[in-house]
Amino acid sequence: MRNGKPARGKRSRQGWFPFVLVGLPLAAFCAVLTIPLEDSIATEILVPASLSPGIDAQFARCSGRVRYTCVVDGDTLWVEGTKIRLADINTPEISKPGCAFESELGERATARLVTLLNSGPFVLERDGPDEDRYGRKLRIAVRNGKSLGDTLVAEGLAEEWTGRRRNWCA
Fold first, then answer.
1. 164 is catalytic
2. Which residues form the signal peptide (predicted)?
3. Do 65 and 121 reside in the same domain of the chain?
4. What is the overall mean pLDDT for the chain?
């Protein structure tokens, strides 16, 4: 300090210190906010299911090798490239049915799931493990607070999932 005034250069360094102390962390925080997240991950992490607008897509039966948004069978679907297993129900198999009854009931369950999914927006809620042993995401499809799987069970097209598959031919 000379003549009651700070030495040259000292004032400028002190003037920058608050900017560096506050500005750099703020800039880093803003940069993190601009990193794009995968839509489904962002929705699961940042938006509670009760506030999410839901999935409002047109579903059809899956066909061919490319599967993006479609229904495989009565309890398995693809949503935007992610394979989902409805965690609360089990439906008859259609790929390798044990008998004609299982095949017919499985086809009906699949067609009904397509109809239910196309009847308006729904959300996929996690309730338990994230994935099954086949890598499918385990979710419950919910519309207006009610599981779509419960509808299939009530209509006799599915059973509640108990941890093991039922013999539909017995």
1. no
2. none
3. yes
4. 82
